[in-house]
Amino acid sequence: MADEIELKTAPADFRFPTTNQTRHCFTRYVEFHRCVTAKGDEAADCDKFAKYYHALCPGEWVERWNEQRENGTFPGPL
C-alpha cells in the first residue's frame, strides 16, 4: 500500500454495549464489503467502514476473512 491509513477508534455503537468488541469488528467488516459490493471499489462512502474495521479487528482475522471471501467460504452475509 502506497497510501498510509490513519487509524482512529470507531465511534460508539449502541448495538455493541459491552467491552467485547468481536461482533462490532465482524459487523463493520461485513458492512464495508456490502458497501463495496453495492457502490464499487472507489466509493468514498465505504472508507469509514474500512477505517472502523481496521481499528477494531486483529489483522489475523482480517487476513483469514479475506481468504475465506476469495474461496467462497466466508461465514457472513455479504
TrEMBL record:
Disulfide bonds join C25-C57, C35-C46. The keyword Mitochondrion applies. Its main location: mitochondrion. Keywords: Disulfide bond, Mitochondrion. InterPro entries: COX6B-like, CX6/COA6-like_sf, Cyt_c_oxidase_su6B. GO terms for cellular component: mitochondrion; respiratory chain complex IV. It is found in: Mitochondrion. Component of the cytochrome c oxidase, the last enzyme in the mitochondrial electron transport chain which drives oxidative phosphorylation. Belongs to the cytochrome c oxidase subunit 6B (TC 3.D.4.8) family. This is Cytochrome c oxidase subunit.
